[in-house]
Amino acid sequence: MRPVYLRGCGLISSLGPNLPQAIEALKKSGREPQRVRLADGSDWPCFTIDHPGEDWRGRACQLICAAIAEAGVIADRAANRNTPLFVASSSLDIGAIEAESGEFGDAFFFAEEIAGWLGWIGPVYLVSSACTSSLQAVQAASALIGTGEVDDAVVLGIELSNRFSISGFASMQLLTPARPRPLGAGRDGIALGEAVAVLHLSNRTARWRVCGGSNLVDGRDPTGAVPETVARMCKQALSDSGLKPSDIGLVKLQAAGSPTNDESELSGMAAVFEPMPPLVTLKAVMGHTLGASGAAEIALLTACLESGIWPQAGYAFDPGLRHEMAPEKPPAARYILADILGFGGGHAAVILEDTSVRSEEDAEQ
Length: 365
Prior knowledge:
Number of helices: 11
Order of helices and strands: EHEEHEHHEHEHEEEHEHEHHEEH
CATH superfamily of the largest domain: Thiolase/Chalcone synthase
CATH class of the largest domain: Alpha Beta
Number of domains: 2
Radius of gyration: 19 Å
Strand order of the largest sheet: 5-4-6-8-1-9-13-12-10-11
CATH architecture of the largest domain: 3-Layer(aba) Sandwich
Oligomer: single chain
């Protein structure tokens, strides 16, 4: 298998219109979520993107094109003739359907529409598997590059605000009425968020390498994590990457602020890692961006590690969990495990290598 590298990232989120501004926002402890009012009169926090648009589709087109440009993806027809585009989303264009009072149609229509906006003539794939969508897309894209079928692939994770998703989570009593507190004392639910994220994967050398990953489905708890499956997910990702638990220097958790899921996830991790590596979660600063979260959180996490700016919780952690978020960037974390857990029993993880750390270690030897 050929090596797969992360050549470029683009991210538009509630933290700002690009990664540099997201890092600047993190220096100031992030931004407060906005409130979205539902038909029943209730309103809920949502980490929305500050980008007005005349209509839902026009706004989506502008955001996608901007994120593609930030990631350094060449969008001309000749360059992308053989480059696959993976569109990953759980809500797709439901926001446009709401605004237009339209009907549900073919789910792949939205992916084709995006390809048209970009003038994309390479293969287009749609991945819509709830919250694990974009992380599964990363694994699928990596497999194509690793086997030599293509040299480059682009993953686009997109989740834009809509009342359908918020209403669904609210009806299951999964949302916090305020700001989420992942791993926090008294945590009482999650908050959703918007994100448009682009990952450009390639066989050409770059700082970040995709080592391997795993994807498991365990429907015993259709809305939550299963500790034994979290453990299996980690073990399979390690095996696929040729690593052992002690190699992992940082774990990016799913942890979104759920009273039970945060605990279940940590329980599964503790069965694999002893001692537990430093932990981080990004949902306190950008919300849970559903199908886009895998790509969005990889983009933001690598930017944090490169800049040294680290997300701060700003609240007390739950002592009963026995683990809390790392207060600062871990020193020399060469291998990073990043996971996403989703509805329907999805448990997905990838392992990234920071090759700049490897170079420093080699120099010392």
